[in-house]
Amino acid sequence: MRMRSWVLGACGALVVAGGGAGPAGAVPVPEADLALHGSAVMTGDRVEVSLTPRNGGPAATPDASVLLRWSVPLAETQRLPQGCARTDERTVVCGIGALAVDAAGERLTVAVRLKEQPAAVTLEVDTAWLGGAVDRDRTNDRLKVLVLDTGDAYAF
Fold it and tell me: Residue 24: what pLDDT?
């Protein structure tokens, strides 16, 4: 059910984003500033990503989700945490829930298996949905991280 609400919410975001300014007297779209901080560790064909979202406001978000995309295909079978779903061969989307203003959300940890064992991968971390809010500062929630197969944590 949670994934369905994310899909319906994302469709609504496209309608709002494409709708223009709207009629006079329309309710303004709330604005939030999501920041994503965490780390990624790669060992062999496994990558573990841990991140904590934070909303700098000025509005709270009733629901949010993040997109994790790898530069290489994932293995066919994955054991993803509840609230996460695979959307294509390289991408996973995870719900991170409601985010209050000036507060950190719950830590999210996602471990995936890669189809092969590359020496390095690029991980893209991005906001997929902000519950109808707009984020005008995308510098702290749209990130690319190079992760080497060293077993070391690469912070973002």
Answer: 66
CA distance 139 to 97: 21
Rounded distance between C-alpha atoms, residue 149 and residue 41, angstroms: 8
Nearest to 95 by CA among 6, 156, 4, 12: 6
Contact 146, 120 (CB under 8 A): yes
Cα–Cα dist 145/156, whole Å: 7
Q: Coil, helix or strand for 34? A: strand
Average pLDDT over residues 124-147: 95
Whether residue 82 contacts residue 150, with contact meaning beta carbons closer than 8 Å, is answered with no
Mean pLDDT score of the chain? 88
Q: Are 108 and 51 in contact (CB under 8 A)?
A: yes
Tell me the C-alpha distance between 119 and 132, whole Å: 39
The string of pLDDT tens digits covering residues 76-111 is: 999 999 999 999 999 999 999 999 999 999 999 999
Q: The whole model's pTM is what?
A: 0.82
Give the phi and the psi of residue 142 in degrees, each rounded to 5.
Answer: -125, 100
